[in-house]
Every structure is written in structure tokens, then in C-alpha cells.
Amino acid sequence: MTGTTPRRRASGIALTAVLLGATACSGEEPAPAAPAPAERALRAVERATDRAGSARVTSTTVMGSELSIEAAGALGWRDDGLTGTLTITYTGGTTAETMRELGTTSMEARYLPDAYYARMGDAFADKLGGRHWIRYDYEDLESLGGGAGAGFADQMRTSTPQQSVKRLLTADDVRKVGVGTTRGQRTTHYSGTVDGPGTQTVDVWVNDQDLLVKKVERGSTESGRLTQTAYYGDYGVRAAAERPPAGDTADFEELLGRETGGSEPS
Asked: What is the 3 state secondary structure string of 159-213?
């Protein structure tokens, strides 16, 4: 394999955990901004979503010219952290090109409270002594440089629906936008501007059970414009993730260490 350093490969793989997807809702009726009632409504959404504990998600992410992915699976959120399993498919960008070089266009991602695991294909496993899984400790992910590393660990840990509501509640301009229909459900649309790398906006669509049906987050990164969209449903679904066998797993820090030592994984 030529033209791709272990750091570039690791960075490209790490980017795969962003959970997002894009489709428009329809039929919204304009409503006057009402920050105080919006905040009260979103507090109810926060409580309901916390209680639900899990959901199915379908999502897409576009990060400038670097990354375009689709994801589908189930995620759970409890006091001890994030759990779940997603299938992630690379649909475009330089990261997709890197993954094709590694012999894969989709992968399984497992989320546990302390780390994220990515299952690579056989071609990549051949470079790791037959090991198929890469483990990314959330703290270690902060060491990634450039757009790949900026806030990535936080994105991993805050990708669930109630975290989008928590972010929106920090906005000074949070407001009700209107009422419409999203994926066949009557929903109320809330929006606001939040702190992040540059200006970021968060929009959520909430059903009559105070549960998110859709969320969209937009902002800017060093790699370009970021749009993250996700759809949620089947709240309360079982969302489990088994830790891969240690003998079939390589650590992200190990890959970086081998790069520093000037040798490729064997």
C-alpha cells in the first residue's frame, strides 16, 4: 500500500463515527419567536428523551470535501455513557478514497462508554497481523490533528438525541419555528445558535410524545462546511455493543506509535 500514512488512515477511520442524515420536513406554519415557552418545551423533551434511553438512528454527514457518510443502527445512552452498533457507509470525499485504498466502503462501528471500535476489512487486517478491529479511546482521539481531531471525541459522546436538545438549550436565541409534518408525524420545529468552532446552528423536530424525530446541526470546520442530520425512531429499542476480542483488536495509539517509529504495522 502506498501514498497513505498510518496517521492519515487512522484519521480517516476515526471520522466515521459522526451520526447524521439529511431529508427535509414539509408543511411548516410560521410561528412567532417565543424563547421562554420554547425553553420550557425543550426541557420536557430533554426529560422524555433521557427516560427513553435508546433509539434507532439513520443519518448522514457531509464535511466539506473530506467526508460524506451514511449510518444506520441503534444507540443507547445511560449515565455510564454511550452504547450501540452502527453500520457506516462511505459515500464520498477524500476519506472515502482512503477507505477504498484500505479495501472497504462500509464498516461496523461499536460504541462503548470508554471507546469506539471500528471493524476493518481483510485487506487492512493483513497489515495488522490479522487483527480486524481498531480501538479509539475517546481521550486519545483528541490527539488527532486538523479537522479530524477538533472536538471529535465530544462529537462521539454527544451524538445522541438528548445531547442535541441540551446543546440547543444553551442558545440565547432558542425559538419555536413552526409546526409541520416530519416522516408522517406531527412535529414542532425549534432552532437556535450555539457555541462551537465558529457559529453553529441546531434544529430539532419533536413529536407529540416530546421525542426527537429529526435533528440538523450545521457549522464550519477546518475541512469545510459541516452538515449533520439524523432521524430517530423506535425509542426504547435494545442497543447493545459487545467489546471485540482483544486478540483481534489494534489500538489507535499503537498505530500512531508505529508511525513515529518509522515502520508500518505488520
From this structure: CCHHHHHHHHCCCCCCEEEEEEEECCEEEEEEEEEEEECEEEEEEEEECCCCCEE
H-only helix segments in the chain? 6-14, 35-52, 93-101, 122-126, 138-141, 146-149, 152-157, 161-168, 252-260
Kindly state the DSSP code that residue 54 receives in the 8-state scheme: E
- In the beta sheet, which residues pair with residue 59? 71, 230
Q: How far apart are CA 56 and CA 49, in angstroms?
A: 13
Half-sphere exposure of 57 (CA within 13 A, CB side): 35
* pLDDT, tens digit, 9 for 90 and up, residues 186-213: 999 999 999 876 779 999 999 999 999 9
CA trace torsion 89, 25, 225, 124 (10° rounding): -10
Dihedral pair phi/psi, residue 37, rounded to 5°: -60, -35
Radius of gyration (C-alpha) of the chain in whole angstroms: 19
Q: pLDDT by residue (tens digit) across 169-190?
A: 999 999 999 999 999 999 999 9
Bridge partners (DSSP) listed for residue 73: 57, 86
d(CA 118, CA 16): 9
Count the helices and strands in the chain (H runs, E runs).
9, 13
DSSP state, residue 246: G
